[in-house]
Design goal:
- The structure holds two protein chains of two kinds.
- Chain A is of the alpha/beta class.
- Chain A has a domain of 215 residues: Alpha/Beta hydrolase fold, catalytic domain (Rossmann fold, 3-Layer(aba) Sandwich).
- Helix content of chain A is 37%, strand content 13%.
- In chain A, strands 1-2-4-3-5-6-7-8 form an eight-stranded mixed sheet, sandwiched between helices.
- Chain A is globular.
- In chain A, 53% of the residues are buried.
- Chain B is mainly alpha-helical.
- Helix content of chain B is 54%, strand content 0%.
- Chain B contains five helices and no strands.
- In chain B, helix 1 packs across helix 2.
- The longest helix of chain B has 18 residues.
- The two termini of chain B are 19 Å apart.
- The chains are: A alpha/beta, B mainly alpha.
- Chains A and B meet through strand 1, helix 1, helix 2 and helix 7 of A and helix 2, helix 3 and helix 4 of B.
């Protein structure tokens, strides 16, 4: 298994935006995904593309939210163009990054087990000098990363909010492995036909994302590595002590997951949004933003303990949250 | 005090101009650098050119373009604020001209204040 080496920088996102602007971490641009088609030969300290949004007018942030995107067709753009500006406007310091192989981050040839993605997050926060407890917000696979990080570093996490996600259980592994097998079969083996279908039925932009996903699967070992990820037991999940918010779409294949999560991790706040599927973040960004703000502001950022004692089910929204 | 390494853009030393043709030229230059990274051929960029349909850019490329714009024009050109008012579909469907107009508006507003 390829491990991140200990000496090299894992990201170049050391610029921070203050005010309401963005900070770019694209570095000297020598390490864009497009420049890394070859197999990875050494221990990989990959370079990750980072974007930050800060509260307006130099206000000190009320909390730090780290937004983690999903697998294959996803990137930090899914946050940047949905909830991120609203979260920053409401007073949060928002940190977004492209996970390895995705978006404008480096795409090493190997090293795609869950643990490696978690180590990337660890090193990213170190590199950005973010020491205090953070709120992790994960969409789909990003939520799996958030759970795993919270298990590895309970002291560094104020709370986790996951959208359409589950921890790395045996059943998660079975599902994601099945998805990756289908992607290999459809997108890689029959790429031209598949992309033509996606373009005709889902639009040009989705086809463009699918093309990038096909390239990721074709040029790296991600489809073999993710299924080799270490799984966690229900006991390990039950030991997570930070507040957890889990949001699902009622029409998603993950519907029902909320009941299992509540049973394994009592105190989890779950929300099921009617009429929504797996892409609820893109489809209902306003609702998701409200839920996240209410949740994050209901947690004490210093300790991660819910301020009111009870889960912040009906915590009032901030004035500018809607 | 955002510092952004000049990445997708070659360093521009002259003071930014707020007229539309100059802004279009600037954005075209950033886009050509980006397309070049993807190994795509030079495409003529006009006000009507659409990011996804015509240039095959991804949403993440628009994020990178936003960084480039801020590096060039400063924080008065706030792309995050611009897109916050748009639906995802509208962002994906953006034309270069819409962005040019936004940059021109932002620069003039900043110049007047």
């Amino acid at each position: 298994m390829a491990m991140i080496d200990t000496g090299r920088d894992t990201c170049d996102g050391t610029n921070s935006g203050t005010g309401s602007g963005t900070g770019s971490g694209t570095g000297d641009d020598a390490d864009h995904a497009t420049d890394h088609d070859g197999p990875d030969t050494g221990p990989d300290g990959v370079r990750l593309h980072v974007q930050r949004l800060s509260p307006p007018d130099g206000r000190p942030p009320t909390a730090i939210a780290v937004l983690i995107h999903g697998l294959l067709t996803d990137s930090l753009a899914s946050w940047y163009f949905t909830v991120a500006p609203g979260l920053a406007a409401a007073g949060l310091e928002v940190v977004m990054y492209d996970q390895r192989g995705h978006g404008r981050s480096e795409r090493p040839g190997s090293g795609y087990r869950l643990d490696t993605f978690v180590t990337d997050l660890e090193r990213l926060l170190d590199r950005l000098d973010i020491a205090g407890p953070v709120h992790l917000v994960g969409n789909c696979f990003g939520g799996t990363v958030a759970f795993a990080y919270a298990m590895r570093h309970p002291e560094r996490v104020a709370g986790i909010a996951v959208i359409e996600a589950q921890p790395a259980t045996e059943s998660w592994l079975t599902e994601i492995s099945g998805i990756l097998r289908r992607v290999v079969a459809e997108l890689v083996v029959h790429e031209a036909e598949s992309l033509a279908w996606v373009s005709a039925n889902r639009g040009a932009h989705t086809a463009r994302l699918a093309k990038s996903a096909a390239r990721l699967v074709r040029t790296t070992t991600i489809a073999e590595d993710v299924p080799e990820s270490r799984v966690v037991s229900e006991e390990q999940i039950g030991a997570v002590r930070c507040p957890v918010l889990a949001v699902y779409g009622a029409d998603s294949e993950l519907a029902g997951q909320e009941r299992w999560l509540e049973s394994v991790l009592p105190g989890t706040r779950t929300v099921v949004l009617p009429g929504q599927g797996h892409s609820v973040l893109a489809e209902a960004p306003t609702r998701i933003r409200e839920l996240l703000l209410s949740w994050i502001h209901g947690c004490d950022p210093a300790t991660g303990v819910l301020g009111t004692g009870a889960p912040a089910v009906d915590a009032p929204l901030e004035a500018d949250a809607s | 005090m955002t510092t952004v390494n000049q990445t997708a853009t070659a360093p521009a030393t002259d003071a930014p101009s707020d007229d539309a043709p100059a802004v279009l030229a600037e954005i075209s230059r950033m886009l050509r650098t980006m397309l070049d990274e993807y190994g795509l051929d030079d495409i003529e960029v006009t006000m009507e050119t659409r990011f996804t349909q015509d240039l095959e850019l991804e949403s993440i490329d628009l994020v990178a373009l936003a960084s480039g714009l801020e590096a060039r024009y400063g924080r008065q050109v706030n792309f995050a604020e611009f897109v916050a008012g748009l639906e995802l579909d509208e962002i994906i469907d953006l034309a270069v001209g819409q962005l040019v107009e936004y940059v021109v508006r932002s620069l003039r507003a900043a110049g007047e204040s």
